[in-house]
Structures are given as C-alpha cells and as structure tokens.
Amino acid sequence: MERRVFGVETEFGLAHHGQGRRGLAPDEAARYLFRPVIDWGRSSNVFIPNGSRLYLDVGSHPEYATAECDDLLDLIASDRAGELIMHDLGQRAEAAMGADGLPGSVYLLKNNIDSQGNSYGSHENYLIPRTTHFRRLSTVLLPFLVTRQIIAGAGRIVPATEDAPAHYAFSQRADHMWEGISSATTRSRPIINTRDEPHADASVHRRLHVIVGDSNMSETTQLVRFGATDLVLRMIEAGQPLGDHELENPISAIRHISHDLSGRATVRTRDGKRVTAVDVQAALLEKARRFVARHGAHHDRVEQVLDLWGRAVEAVATGDHSLIDREIDWAIKKRLIDEVAARSGLDLGAPRLDQIDFAYHDIHPERGLFHLLVRRGRAERLLDDARLRRAITDPPATTRAVVRGRFLSAARAHGVGHTVDWVHHKLVDRPLEAVMVKDPFVTEDPRIETLLARLGGELLELNPAEREAQSVPLALSERYVRTQPAAPPEPPLV
Ligand SMILES: Nc1ncnc2c1ncn2[C@@H]1O[C@H](COP(=O)(O)OP(=O)(O)OP(=O)(O)O)[C@@H](O)[C@H]1O
Ligand SMILES: [Mg+2]
User: Fold this and answer.
1) How far is the CA of 493 from the centre of ligand 2 (A)?
2) Binding positions for ATP (predicted)?
C-alpha cells in the first residue's frame, strides 16, 4: 500500500494510594478519572476533538485509541497525547478525591501488567489490502511478531517461581498471549486478531488488529515497532519472497524467547528447523534493507527505522546492550534497574527493583522514571512538547480524523445532539442524513459541510490560548463558538 492507516489503542493501569488511609479501589478511582469525560460527552465512551476515542470499559483500565494516522510521527504524537490527556484527567481526579475527603495520589501506568499479574493491552491497527494472503500472515508476520519483542519489548522483572529465579524478560505481554491467529474476541488474546471490522471499505481493505505488543514509553521504540511492522507488511503486500519461519508453536515460542535475554533460545519451525529470535529478525531486516534499496524509502524515517532495528538485533546478538540503551524500552529500563541493583547490592527479586519497574511506566511527567531519564539525557525523544500539545487538540492533518474532529466540534458548538464513530457522523434529529466516511484518507467531505450548514449560525474558531483558558481538560476544550444566533433550522427530513 502506498499509504497506510495506523492506529494504536492503549489501556492504562490505574491505582490510587490514599494518604494516611487505604486508597480507592481501581473501579472507584476510574469513576473519578472519567467524571470530566462523562460531564462533557454524557458517556464513558466518547470521540474527542482530536479525532481519538476515550473509553472506560467495565473494570478499571481506561483506554485511549489514537485517531487514524498515516504518518508514523503523527501516530506517536497522537499516542503520546493520549498519555498527557490521561495525566490531566488523573490530576483532576486527585483534586476531586481530595475535595471529597479522600486525599492521596492517582497513578496511571502505561505498562501491561498490574501488581496482581493482570494483563492489559496495547493494540495496533494496520490498514491492509483485502487481497493480502492470509497464509503469509502466519508464515511471515506471525514469526515476526513473536520475535519483535527483542527490538520493541518494554522489559520486565519476572518474579521468582519454584522453577526459576527472578530474572529480566524482554516482554510484558508475552506470557499473556494464548493464541496465534484468531477471529475470536480480544479476550482470548490472539497475537493477530482477524475479527473483520475494517472501519473502511470492506471490499478493498482489512484492518489488521495486532494484540501482542507491549506498551512503549519510548518514542524511538515506538518508531521501530510500528516502522518495522509496516516494512514487513509492505514486503508481504509486494509479494516479496521472505523465507518461511512459520513456527510450530507460536505461543510457547513467544514465552521462551521473552525469558532468554541472550537471544540464543531456539524455537522450532514447522519444517523442523531450530531458529533464534535473532535469526528471524536479522533475516527480515536484511530483506527489508534490500527491499528499500530496490524500491526506495516510502517515508523520511525509513533509514532511522532500519538503523535502530539493526542495532537492536546486534545488541541482543552480541550482548552489548549499550547499542540501544537510550532508545529501546527494555534496554533503557534494564540499565536503570541494573545500576540500582549494583549500587544497593540487591538481587532482581528485591521489592525495590519491582517498584522501579513499575515507576518507569508512570505517565506522570515529573514522577515517572522514564521521563526522569529523558530529562537526564539517558533516553531519546523524537517529538517536542509543542507537537505533543497540538496533538491533544488537533487531529492528524492527513486522515478522516479531520472530518470527525470538525463534525463533532461543530455539532457541539451548535448545541445539537450527535453521534460519531470511526466511520459514521450523525445528527440525532436528522438520522436519515447520516454520513458514512469509509475512506480513511479523506480530509474533507462536502456532505458533512452540507449537513452542518443546515444548522445555521456562524462558527468562530478559537485560538490555542482561548482553548487553554477553558476550565475543562484541554483535550475536551471547545474548538468553536457560535457567533450568531441560529437561523430557524430547516426542518429535518423526518
Ligand atoms: N481503517 C482503519 N484501518 C486501520 N486502523 C483504523 C482504521 N480505522 C480506525 N483505525 C484505528 O483503529 C483503532 C480502533 O480502536 P477501537 O478501540 O475503537 O477499536 P476496537 O479495538 O475494534 O474496539 P474495542 O476496543 O471496542 O474492542 C483506532 O486506533 C483507530 O485509529
Ligand atoms: Mg479498543
């Protein structure tokens, strides 16, 4: 595909630590967290002006799904904006709890395992042509995803069991995946979910739903995670021969690989060979390099993706983690844990190191250890604060998220009931005029403008300072005000 749509959904861990008393249970804390969202949108499942979705399912893992992006940096910016939005909600929840006589601290973690061992996800979405052969997803993409943890894992201290001492693993999610490819619900945790909900023209496209990834704190790790996956998909789509690494048992392989930091653990392929994660990644990387040399780079970060992908594979193969310990989450975090362990004479089973593991994923910009490492120059960034701040309010400029953001912001300014999802745009009073935007690459739609024009009145767009000054979370700030009273509206069709 020349242009691809990407989206990533992140579920956050949530905890409340009470001051001088027990903290709130996570579901109660979640209710506080989403109070401004419900006040704003009358629901705990809303699309917001930047085109993304905020969602609180039953349970207590608030979710943010980025708007559709067709550019990797937009995707990373939108995902990082999600963290800032959650942090803003967290600070407000903390204040509201305090006002209700429940002082304490709200913790929001962008990781995948809570202290009870429950797992929650970071789901990737890739638009692919419907013609992509399913078989190649299992022979090429699945082995790529099973081994991708060595280049994009978030790392984790695994507590001691009867069989093994405490140790450091590549991945947070690996031990929590149960199937290879399946169309079952995401609850059964297939690595690739084939549920057919393309949010696009179903005769042309599929939405590939990848459940296996770890949530990343590091922007550079995200770049290699999404960028390498996109390159592998491009090669599959181009019909490029990529060898066959189909695994005999992807689920035992993903666990086995995660727990062996030497990268030398072997797993069996369907045709009886034994391969390591390094073998699989190095082979696909080499193919990708040749593919790019032949076809050219399709975006301006391709070289950076290939370079970092290469260094990550080399770091694991040689054990020289310093090649990536400012850019890849598992290595950034491991370096910190190793230093504290050495300085304090602790072994990996020590509770203090466990706390560091969690605190790395704390999204609080001052308290979170990943952010501290960035400030100390020990972790790289790709995007500046201004870009992240824009992504809180503005949709990515090159996809239909622009249309969604415009529609819902305008409908709000007009004070009319409306519903939207990834594809649909509807005014409650005019259900027959609902507009479906199936093409995720369009950025304007005359039917939407016609529909909005029927509401009469002029809208004035507020500038960033005016949006900041509103008393709601910035992500929920109004984009327009109406400057004239509405003309008597045209009667709806029904
Ligand atoms: N046509 C598309 N192709 C690829 N990704 C898309 C497309 N349309 C939307 N997306 C992305 O897919 C993600 C959908 O997130 P959402 O959480 O709503 O979906 P879901 O996982 O199917 O639903 P749920 O979480 O309720 O199970 C978003 O990140 C969005 O940007
Ligand atoms: Mg989702």
Assistant:
1) 34
2) 53, 66, 422
